[in-house]
Amino acid sequence: MKVVVDMNKCQDHGQCVFAAPDVFSMDDGGHLLYVSDPDDALRDEAEEAADVCPLQAIRIED
Amino acid sequence: MSSGRVVVVGASMAGLRAAEQLRAAGWTGAVTVVGDEPHMPYNRPPLSKEVLAGKASFDSLALTPKASTADVEWRLGTRAVAARLDERAVDLDDGSTLAYDGLVIATGMRPRRLRCSGPRTGRHTVRTLADARGLRDELTRPGVRVVVVGAGFIGCEVAATAVGLGVTEVTVVDPLPLPMVGPLGELLARALLRRHEERGVRFALGTGVAGFEGDDRVTGVVLGDGTVLPADVVVESVGSVANVEWLDGNGVDLGDGVLTDEWLRVGGRPEVVAVGDVARFPNARYDGVPRRVEHWSIPTDTAKHAAKSLAAHLAGRERESAPFAPLPTFWSDQHDFRLQSFGAPVLGIDDVRVLDGDPDGEVVVGYHIGERLVGVVALGGHTAAAKAARYRTDLLKQPTPAVPSTSTSTSTSAVPSALTVQGASK
């Protein structure tokens, strides 16, 4: 599984961090950090994060 | 168990999510999605902001369906005109009929229009891509004068975007004394009024619209006190109306959207569910009173829950036991600030306290019923969400009150009957 975030779209809403804290986090400045190749066991939460992104900036690829 | 067909009526985010979640819940039968717009589902929050500002193309709005929905049939540019729930059939405006085993109601809302005398031309709403494109063309005319009717979320977002585009005359009209005061309460509403005024938005508050001036197109807005505001463009953001007429005659409660039970099932029929803005559902997190919630997160939340209950029924399995209990969330970007909300502020609007910061700068405000925190709203820069996150955890941890919910509630509860933030980030 590969996680791709369009950082041009991202506006740091942080909804993905709530949905998938093992994949997404915020740095001290409130900007997004993420794991681009998380373990497949995290697929459900990564999909949830993609669904709840207000900018629809997150793609999950196989 | 994979024979038969589920028909999803409505092809916006709620319809798409319903199709995806049916697959995730194990439904392998046919899925047909019917939508009256010509477009595949797209994301609406940018319509009043980036699209209006000319910063977003349709490609950037389109929602990418999950691979699991590759075999879904999309009947776009087609409207459902009638449902016959006893016969499990939906009639379409092209004269055809779709028989179903399962039905998902996802027809959403349309903008309410002002019923006033005067011309129609020059009057706009913002709900669809076509709406936003039409309004953008008008806002970019040099020297244009704009009157926004309705100081809710959409109205304030449009006013902010217009100012950002360089429009020098933007006036927001509302019968209430402060913008967004209904969903947010006085404390934040005052802070928002000041921020908008500092950035060049004018307000005519405490007065409604009596009519429009002009022959072929609008030239002015007549207020309730007789004042006339010159206007080349009027934006009506005065709430919304549920698209439920096609369900008439089936004995379903359509009083405000489509009434559902706590599994989003409609009219006591396990094969019919409602999702998105149009669903009026009890939220077990609060008090069991069914409400519609027009927040961006709700289509996804409702689709997940409804698809599970529908797929279980169609497969002859027991539905899952937990009733629906989403944590509502909304945001609104206006000028250079963001509002970020978790929970149900409107339920605690009579007891609003500053939790962090100061209304003149970044602030987090809490809404209470007694000592129970029921909602938080942060106002500030783009880091406001992070500030509110700590309180979001508190809201999630709170035990759900043991109030029995009922799908036929005629509750006389004092809390508002509609947890509706008008068009918040739609």
Secondary structure topology:
The complex is a heterodimer of chains A (62) and B (426).
Chain A (H helix, E strand, L loop, with lengths): L1 E4 L9 H5 L4 E3 L5 E3 L8 H10 L5 E4 L1
Antiparallel strand pairs in A: 1-4, 2-3
Chain B lengths: L4 E5 L3 H12 L5 E6 L14 H4 L4 H4 L11 E4 L3 E5 L4 E4 L4 E3 L2 E4 L3 E3 L11 E2 L4 H11 L5 E5 L3 H12 L4 E6 L6 H4 L1 H13 L3 E4 L3 E5 L6 E4 L4 E3 L2 E4 L3 E3 L15 E2 L5 E2 L2 E6 L4 E2 L16 H18 L14 E6 L2 E7 L8 E6 L5 E7 L2 E9 L3 H14 L29
Architecture overview:
The complex is a heterodimer of chains A (62) and B (426). Helix content of chain A is 24%, strand content 23%. With 62 residues, chain A is of the alpha+beta class. The radius of gyration of chain A is 10 Å and the shape is globular. In chain A, 34% of the residues are buried. Chain B is of the alpha/beta class. In chain B, the strands form seven sheets. A six-stranded mixed sheet of chain B has the order 3-2-1-7-20-19, with helices on one face. Chain B has a five-stranded parallel sheet with strand order 9-16-10-11-12, with helices on one face. Chain B has a five-stranded antiparallel sheet with strand order 22-23-26-25-24. The relative contact order of chain B is 0.14. Chains A and B meet through helix 1 and helix 2 of A and strand 22 and helix 9 of B.
How would you concisely characterize the structure shown here?
The complex is a heterodimer of chains A (62) and B (426). Chain A has two helices and four strands; from the N terminus they run βαββαβ.
Shape of chain A: globular
Strand content of chain B: 25-35%
Structural class of chain A: alpha+beta
Q: Major β-sheet of chain A, in short?
A: 2 strands, antiparallel
Number of helices of chain B: 9
Give the neighbour order of strands across the main sheet of chain A.
1-4
Number of helices of chain A: 2
